[in-house]
Amino acid sequence: MAELIQKKLQGEVEKYQQLQKDLSKSMSGRQKLEAQLTENNIVKEELALLDGSNVVFKLLGPVLVKQELGEARATVGKRLDYITAEISLGKPLGDNPGSLC
How far is Cα 59 from Cα 51, in angstroms, rounded to an integer? Predict the structure, then answer.
């Protein structure tokens, strides 16, 4: 009788620990998304201050590549839409959060 209760209790404790791990993982993903959202909003604000005479560069690996201002604004806008959608769905980003860059 005591063994049966002990096994059942151990199973419930393991379920609880797994739920704690899942919650921690979800919260970590959410925090990462919130940080990216804030960062991209700052970039959007900075890009809004520029005019056509300014030069914008994009970092691709170790190289800075010239980018059109309109293209940079569109990229940041898409990134913001993506991050906002991920936050509203409650799903963490995959292993490669920079894949949209």
Answer: 20
Residue 36's Cβ-count burial label (10 Å; 0-12, 13-18, 19+) is: buried
The answer, as to whether pTM is greater than 0.85, is no
**Residue 78, CA atoms < 13 Å, CB-side half-sphere:** 10
For the beta carbon of residue 79, count every other beta carbon within 10 angstroms: 19
Q: Residue 59, SS3?
A: strand
CATH topology of domain 1-89: Helix Hairpins (1.10.287)
Low-confidence ranges of the chain (pLDDT < 70): 91-101
CB < 8 Å & 24+ apart, contacts of 71-76: 72/47, 73/44, 73/47, 73/48, 75/101, 76/40, 76/43, 76/44, 76/47
Q: What is the pLDDT of residues 23-51, one digit of tens each?
A: 999 999 999 999 999 999 999 999 999 99
